[in-house]
Amino acid sequence: MSKKKRYGNFLAHRAAHATRAAHQNAPPFRTFLIVFLFLAWAGCGWWAFSLSGKGPLDAAYATFTFLGVSKDNVSVDGLLPEVARFAGLVLPLVSVLFAFYGVVFRTLCRIYLRFSKGHVVIAGDGPAALHLAQCCAKDADVVVLILQRLEKETLSGLAKQKIIVLEGDATLPATLITARAAHASHLCAMMDDEAGNLRIEAACQSVAAKHRGSRAKPLILHILLPNLLLRREARDLRKTLERERKASLAEGKSASAPMRIETRPFSLTEIGVRQAMISLGPTLLDRCAAEAQTCPHLLLIGLDDVNEAMAAWVLTRMWSAHFGPPRITVLSSNGRQSQSRFAAHFPEAQAHGVWQADIAFESQHEQELVLDVATLSRIEAKRGPLTAICVSLGDDSSTLSAALALLSNYYEAQPPRPMPILMRETTLSEFSKRYGHRNTTEADCPFLVAFGQIQNVAEPSVLLEGEMDRAAALYHFAYEAFLDDAGRATSQRKMDYAARGGWEQLGETYRHANRALADHAAIKLWDGGYRPAAKGENGQHDAQFDPELTQALSRMEHARWNAERLLDGWKPGESRENRARIHPSLVPWDSLSADDQGKDRLMVGLAAKVTKWIYRDGVLPREDRRGA
Q1: What is the Cα–Cα distance from 177 to 185, expressed in whole angstroms?
Q2: pTM value?
Q3: What is the secondary structure of 83-109 as a DSSP string?
Q4: What would the pLDDT profile of 411-460 be if each residue is shown by its tens digit?
């Protein structure tokens, strides 16, 4: 069965086939055809003239000259001279065609591309951009990859995969026009330089300003922004542009309004952290319960973009009604510098009494980092027992060495402690395939969890289709419907479609909040005594929370929401001001109005109600592992 083609119209697919043909190497076939035509011309002509009584030299001379003589002046007739004449005339044409083979198909590719629509444009030459392009090509989607420089061999390899490669500067509007970005479904700005990605956005806006008229769906612009502050600013800019577009529509300027662009700033690091922690969160709570810990406590080795995203996830998601607020300890070579960085990126995290992040910063010499067992014991004595450790030291080699040292330390402990050790990895290695996940046969031993590989985060289903936003979209839809419409939905496809429609109209700030809510669903279910059913298990599709637990979960949900809002830069205030990020509900639970408390209870109820759509195999009591 052929794969479904999601992106690219008919002419876009013709352009992809043409670019592969332009770089297809087939020297044996070309050589064989040219030699065959030459032998047919020379052999058949020489044999025909030899049979007419000419000598060998005269026959050879006649063979090479009779192509320029009219048929009436040739002294021989029959099939052989006709074959020789045909082969002799076709030979130079075929030779010229083969000589300009690549030029012909590259020209056809450019012609087809001028009428292409619905394809994917990717700008960037990093591993993530190349991997995304290759995955799209494997899914039979049309990809236009914009590169500034690339090795000839790599360029040829990409073209053979039917990836249309344009060499140029994606920050220039002319390059985007050549790539037909205004008619694409997705434009992914994935350069290593964040400023370059923002310039691509500006160039795209310039192209959109000239592209008047409407399109059925907006152009989705994915901007790679590893820096948290830049992502926050990009979300605010998107809200401003959306307000301006709606104002133009309200004034009746829809015909002259620029093409709609939906900007989606993202971070591969943030995606990797979410992928790892959504499934690992309940496991960490199991560990807290088994060791009678008072709260989840994560140790971060180093504070880079990875561990910063991990800290944000833990502080906004690892909230449980059975434990205290989550705790973070950062161990780095310069604790004061790490503390300054955290305060600059999360200025409201410790500025208000409603909630203050429980985070501490420890310093240790870089050469001794995590290798000293006494250091870990000192941290636990000072801050409490550790629930997990996350290692990210900038490069894979240093991270792997530190993670292995930790693994060895905990294996040698008596008795061995089942410590989860998370390590960020840029590309999937044989080591992580074999050891970068939990060995279920050694449940009481420490284990490694590798995450963040581009093979997992730079996937079309994740970046283009929004697979990880599916649960968040369902939450948003159910919240907007106040549970009634969600409860009546009987079709999974209809539910997904309705949720996706509302999600596409939602601002990025609210998407961010719904992602946090969806990520926390598994922990709410854990608090209620449930776990997601594994494939093949007979799970139930409607979790039930008793009233007392619902009240405790509602209090916890509001505390978690306070932390999530404050980390996102919001501040308490008398009245709500979105531009200034001021929210009047950033107060303790007991200070909330009855209506606001009801909203938190609604969020808890959603965790139980949308179970049937988020976990397709249902849920089971945590101690129940019955088979199908």
Answers
A1: 14
A2: 0.84
A3: HHHHHHHHHHHHHHHHHTHHHHHHHHH
A4: 777 677 788 999 999 988 777 777 666 554 456 778 889 999 999 999 99
